[in-house]
Amino acid sequence: MKIILTHEVSGLGAAGDVVDVKDGYARNYLVPRNFAIRWTKGGEKDVAQIRRARKIHEIATIEQANEVKAKLEGVKVRLATRAGDAGRLFGSVTPADIATAIEASGGPKVDKRRVELGSPIKTLGSYQVSVRLHAEVVANVGVEVVAA
């Protein structure tokens, strides 16, 4: 099935790309989560608009990405969450929580979809989180999860 991506999907493409995927993947995952729309001749006109919107939000050059990377890696991020006596969190830390904490710590605004967690954060402690700024630039940010 041919679809037009409306958001960046890791391993598949960026917003505005027209890709061919299996029917079930498109019907059951991409379209219901608004990551993509079905390709039509009329939808092809929307591709230019989606790409324009993507250019506004994305970091255009590697130099800009390296500047943002330097800012991100210089920020100390502390995230206060509710935890039990043994240090286990009530729930887990999400990429949206980390993006908000980076901005609150004085760092640049980061899109939550660019924050990559290796595994869910469910206990107190220090963690390394990757932020994909550009296709070739990844910033590693230290996040300290403390009890609130």
From TrEMBL:
NCBIfam families: L9. One of its GO terms (biological process) is translation. The keyword Cytoplasm does not apply. GO terms for cellular component: ribonucleoprotein complex; ribosome. This is Large ribosomal subunit protein bL9. Gene3D superfamilies: Ribosomal protein L9, C-terminal domain (3.10.430.100), Ribosomal protein L9, N-terminal domain (3.40.5.10). The gene is rplI. Binds to the 23S rRNA. GO terms for molecular function: rRNA binding; structural constituent of ribosome.
